[in-house]
Amino acid sequence: MLLQQLANGVFAGSIYALFAIGFTLVFGVLRHLNLAHPAVFTAGAFVGIEVAARTAIPVWILFPVVALFGALAGVLVERIAFRPLRGRDDEHFAGLISSVALGGVVIALLQARYGTEPQSFSADYFPNQLFEFAGVRVTLTQLVTLGLALVLMLGLAWLVSATSLGRSMRAVAENPTAAKVLGVNVGRVTAGTYALSSALGTVAGALLALNLGQAGRDLGASIELVGFAVIILGGLGSLWGAMAAGVVLGIAEALTIHLFDSTWKSMVAFALLFAVLVLRPRGLFGQVKVREV
Amino acid sequence: MRLKSTTGAALAVAALLATGACVSQDTTDASSDSALSGSGTGADCTIDETVKIGAVFSLTEAAAFAGAYQQEGLALGFEEVNAAGGITYEVIQEDDKTTVDGSVAAFEKLIDRDKVSAIVGPTLSNMAFTTYTDAQSAGVPALGVSTTAEGIPEIGDYIFRASLPEEVALAASIPAAKEALGLAKVAVLYDSADEFTASAFNTIKDVLTDEGIEIVAEETFETTDTDFSAQLTSVLDAEPDAVILSALPGATVPLVKQARELGIEAPIVGGNAFNSPVLVGALEDAAEGLIVGGAWSAAADTTGNAEFIANYTEKFGRAPDQFAAQAYTAAFLIDQAVRADCDANREAIKDNLGQILEFDSILGPISIDEGGEVTQEPVVQIIRDGAFTLL
User: Fold this and answer.
1) How far is residue B363's CA from residue B321's CA, in Å, rounded to a whole number?
2) Contact B382, B289 (CB under 8 A)
3) Do A122 and B284 touch (CB under 8 A)?
4) Is this complex scored with an ipTM above 0.95?
5) Phi and psi at residue B379, to the nearest 5°
6) Test the A interface: residue of B233, B252, B256 with most A CBs within 10 Å
7) Among A213, A219, A263, whose Cβ lies nearest the Cβ of B253?
8) How far is it, in rounded angstroms, from Cα A132 to Cα A134?
9) What is the pLDDT confidence band of residue B7, given thresholds at 50, 70 and 90?
10) Considering the entire predicted model, what is its pTM?
């Protein structure tokens, strides 16, 4: 039973982690807080449901399609909410506000297209199966979620550390001006970062919708707060931190429900957050800040 | 949060009291309008002037899933009442956008500008708590068709409801399920962040104690939760004969789906939130075996029910749900109250709505007492082969 609850926590946590790494990637590279991320996450869920209903394509083609949509959405978010503000003194704060506004626009567009009622995956689109390993019950969607989350997180880690785009991203993160002088196309790196971030966000949204069977307009809002807690807990801007913290929070929530009551769930999650902030202000995996002088 | 909403409500009430004073001055001429009282009695009653009825429902935003059905049900009801002749009703429809201030504005418009004889609605109880004080101070009878919270009819003598409280629905479905399925031990799952589902939980516990059923697992969740696997694991482990669920419609679909996926085969018993064809559509096979307590059933053999379902489906292109059925019934209840004295003035409707005894409706025999509270037999249904069947 305890083992089962740990497994539940890991599955819930992998969605938190996927949501959080998309968000933290943009912050780590560009120091932008993109608060349109939860709305893009919700859009991913709706797009996934609509594409599945219209084309009946199998699930392993569905997610790349959703990711492609997400990448386009990410480029648009950067063009609309952040690029016009570039170079202003209040660039970061104004970007934060304009991304909140853009998030509102996205949700309104979703309502215009899909109405106010939640949309559902058809039950026979991805028939669920139950497996049992050593007394732990897992469903096929949970396995797909965990597998896809692992692949995407490891893929992202590889991309950042070993490819030329990743090198450029790290250069921009270190010092955008120096990167530009050294010939890095900062505009392209910025767009690429947003595309990656939003692709991860939309896939996470579609995965959550597949797990729940349905998605409403408040899907992003329901995960937003936990997602942000994961980012802080892991260390703002740290990919490995976000992954680990997502799973830690997922397990903490599952155990709280198991041992106490769901009412305590948020309290335990945020107590954990405050404890980390007091004992280790840079988060579990965050780096000591030396740049802000 | 709690403090904020109370202060907001207090301010709203204060504002309403201020407007209430002039509203009630206006109504003296409206309530003594002799053109609204006709000749004859009962079925022979004839009133020359068109009787204006206000309707306030949540047609957009969060509660639109209910409001749209209510608007259609009420329209169909008055269409049939008008066809009977003698009295012509005109429904003035307002949308409260699922907000308290939208609801207040709609009530004020209907009371002051349109000078309606009575108001049907609003959709949600938390709006009714504010708007009904407005209707009460203005002396306009208001009839709720989905306001199930405790304390609504107690707001005043102008406030009535024809909507079965959640507690009554659940209190009926549990003994029925016990009899049909022989329950000895159950798991209870409820939304602890919502006032109505949390208060329904107390009723559930009392009913279970009375019936001698043991609670082997007691789990909570919150309205915005999406993942219920931790709670459902505990439920699965307790091996209950049935799961009793008190949830809002939003959480019901993912919760039932996840329960079935995790291998919980036990029947799931619920209240009003289950009573919608939309739920069956969204859950598909996972809806099988759900036991639902409610105010109305498509399968019930009540007076005019088959015609209501046929006419509604033909007119609006979809099957009616409980919200539509209760709003439809409201049209007949108001007509009944008007015909009693052949008088469509606010005062007469108020006096007669509280005298309705065993009126034969599609909800079965329905009564409203002077205090404004409804009495009707709840129906208990089980979903079999994708359709609601009486248990």
Assistant:
1) 12
2) yes
3) yes
4) no
5) -105, 145
6) B233
7) A213
8) 6
9) low
10) 0.76
